[in-house]
Amino acid sequence: MAEQNRTPRDLTSREKTARMVYSPSSVLPDPTPEPGYVYRWIATHVLGQYDPTNTSKKMREGWEPVKAADHPELMLAGNEKTGNVELGGLMLCKMPAELARSRDEYYSRQAQAQMDSVDNHFMRNNDPRMPLFSDRKSTTTRGGGFGSGLK
Question: Whole-model pTM?
Answer without folding.
Answer: 0.61
